[in-house]
Amino acid sequence: MTTTPFISRKGMTRRSMLGAALAAGAAVPLAAVGGPAWAEPAATRFMLPVPTGPHPVGTVQLHLVDRSRPDDIAGPGRFRELMATVWYPARDVQRYPVAPWMPAGALQAFLADAGFGALTPLELLTAGHVGAPMRRSGRRLPVVVFSHGAHSHQGDHTVMVQELASHGYAAVTVAHQYDTYTEFPDGRIAVPLRDRQAPTLPGDFAADLRFVLDCVEQLAAGCNPDVDHRELPAGLLGSLDPRRMGAFGWSKGGTATACAMLADERIRAGLSLDGPMQMNPPLAGDLDRPFMMMSAAFTRATDPEAAAFWSHLRGWRLDIQAQGAVHVSYGDNEALFPQVAKLFGWSAQQLQEVIGTLDPDQGVKIQQAYPLAFFDEHLRHRRGHLLDGPSPAFPAVTFLP
After folding, report:
1. Alpha carbon distance 107, 121 (integer Å)
2. Where is the signal peptide (predicted)?
3. Cα–Cα distance between 220 and 205 in angstroms, integer?
4. In 10 A of CB 118, how many CB atoms?
5. What is the DSSP letter of 136?
6. Contact residues for 395 (Cβ-Cβ < 8 A; gap 6+)
7. Segment 244-260, tens digit of pLDDT
């Protein structure tokens, strides 16, 4: 397989998290440690931080086909095929296995593309329990859908996703076919397609998000949208609230979130994690629903597209920036790369070349706290004070005028 370099701030082929940062910043330090270091990962387990919410987390995969969109790449009579994962508050999780960060086959392809196949024996585990029954509270759950970045995967912001689920949200992540690493139930491994004709523009991602909203509505109505008719966790059907749906995404997924909101009023609130806002088709119309930007590399001061999008926001809006954050800082890398650095003996400078100078522990807390505060305010009408202005608990976070 070939890879697309993670170098251009303006290009739309950024690779997320592990493979991207390894390819960009880790080749020298890994080469420096020499051969013996490769023997250690077989016994190493990486963990994401435990969510702070009161509920344990369950998760289940969905195999979805959008029969409104023919897929010429897949062949005649084929339609847009997606994998999605639902994360939710659960109960009785002890009897259910812990979910991996990525399916094994997809993880192997992901790391091999980055030139780090020797890392595949590592276990990367989440806080989710596969198939655990949903915790029923008597009220339907608000829903957020997540869109990943270019040449990435649906698990690359699991810290945020499982945090939301632990606080009572249903979070649905989608793997955007032809621009992702994922695994289908029949064992097929999907990898990014480096073809300009592939449906991988922000507008294509946005269409996927809107289709996932359709599937959420089916779940809310008690119908199983999984094309293989696999059994869903107890309590999931009929438990989601289609009247309280939000969306968020990283990089191109942040742009896709904006595109989807402009086209679909079902999305009540949107969050972009350093989205470049390079709209295709071009930006048209204003957005009167709440939108929040967490900026790093793509700031309104440096990128005309981000500034132009901001000018079209007519409702509640907020733009924050964590000092020392780089483009990949708002994601799981803040939790995982310090573990990689420790394993391979990187210096502090080598780690900062990958994830920026933002303190990793602070970075994790930021991505746990701010998205939750945003969706709590605009989907649950639970207004706190975190979004009012600078907080002593998060000294790195600045509010951009």
Report:
1. 10
2. 1-39
3. 23
4. 16
5. P
6. none
7. 999 999 999 999 999 99
Closest Cα partner for 267 from 250, 243, 301, 286? 243
User: What is the C-alpha separation between 55 and 91, in angstroms, rounded?
Assistant: 8
Model-wide pTM > 0.85 = yes
Contact predicate 251/327, CB 8 Å: yes
| 342-360 CB burial, b ≥16 within 10 A, e <16 | ebbebeeebbbbbbbebeb
- Do residues 262 and 237 touch, judged by C-beta distance below 8 A? no
CA–CA distance, 186 with 259 (Å, rounded to integer): 32
Question: What is the gyration radius of the CA atoms in the chain, in angstroms?
Answer: 20
Domains along the sequence of the chain with CATH: 17-382+395-399 (3.40.50.1820)
Please give the Cα distance from 53 to 164 (Å, whole number). 8
Calpha distance 48→217 (Å, rounded): 30
- Helix-helix angle 348-355:333-344, to 10 degrees: 150
| Residue pLDDT, tens place only, 354-373 | 999 999 999 999 999 999 99
Q: How many CB atoms lie within 10 A of CB 320?
A: 18
Q: CA 137 to CA 165: how far, in whole Å? A: 13
What is the amino acid identity at position 348?
A
- Looking from the CA of 301 toward its CB, the CA atoms found within 13 Å total 8
For residue 70, give both structure tokens. Answer: 């023919």
Angle between helices 202-220 and 252-263 (to 10 degrees): 60
Q: Report the C-alpha gap between 20 and 111 in whole angstroms.
A: 9
The Cα–Cα gap between 380 and 243 comes to 11
Q: Dihedral of CA 152/153/154/155: which sign?
A: negative
Q: Please give the Cα distance from 40 to 122 (Å, whole number).
A: 9
d(CA 110, CA 97): 23
Structure tokens at 177: 């076919």
The DSSP H or E segment spanning 165 is helix 158-166
Which residue(s) pair with 90 in the sheet? 134
Q: Enter the tokens of residue 383.
A: 């207004």
The residue among 249, 248, 245 whose CA lies nearest residue 266 is 245
Instruction: Summarize pLDDT for 205-224 with one digit per residue, the tens.
Output: 999 999 999 999 999 999 99
